[in-house]
Design a protein that fits this description.
mainly beta; 6-stranded parallel β-sheet; globular; 0% helix
């Protein structure tokens, strides 16, 4: 049995609030929390550890690239995660999901392919 090291997520430094709608792509470092709606791609800097959190109210309509993802909202687009994906009970992805490690709660939905990346970070 493989043993994976506990992932230390960076602090959330950017929040897109519940009543906020963003049109256009977003590039971020460290932690981004989405409670509102993003119409465009969301991409984390590869130079730093990153985490994207999308709450049950949050929605992204575009492709996503991040190191770690916690999703309880909706993403319409392909999702590329280098390390860990945590899908909560309210999570919905309409697109392909590329992941290193996947944790999926009952009720989460992926309408697309699940494609495991090689060699997720191990201890």
């Amino acid at each position: 049995m493989n043993s994976y090291k506990k992932i230390q997520l960076p602090p959330i430094v950017t929040i897109i609030g519940h009543d906020t709608e963003v049109t256009g792509g977003i590039n971020f470092t460290q932690g981004l929390h989405v409670d509102g709606v993003v119409h465009g791609d969301v991409q984390a800097s590869e130079a730093n550890k990153s985490a994207l959190t999308v709450s049950h109210n949050g929605r992204i309509e575009g492709n996503v690239w991040a190191q770690n993802l916690r999703l309880d909202g909706r993403i319409v687009g392909d999702v590329h995660v280098r390390e860990r994906v945590e899908l909560g009970a309210g999570a919905s992805i309409e697109g392909d999901l590329y992941y290193g490690l996947l944790e999926m709660a009952m009720g989460a939905e992926v309408d697309g392919r699940l494609l495991r990346r090689n060699d997720p970070e191990k201890s």
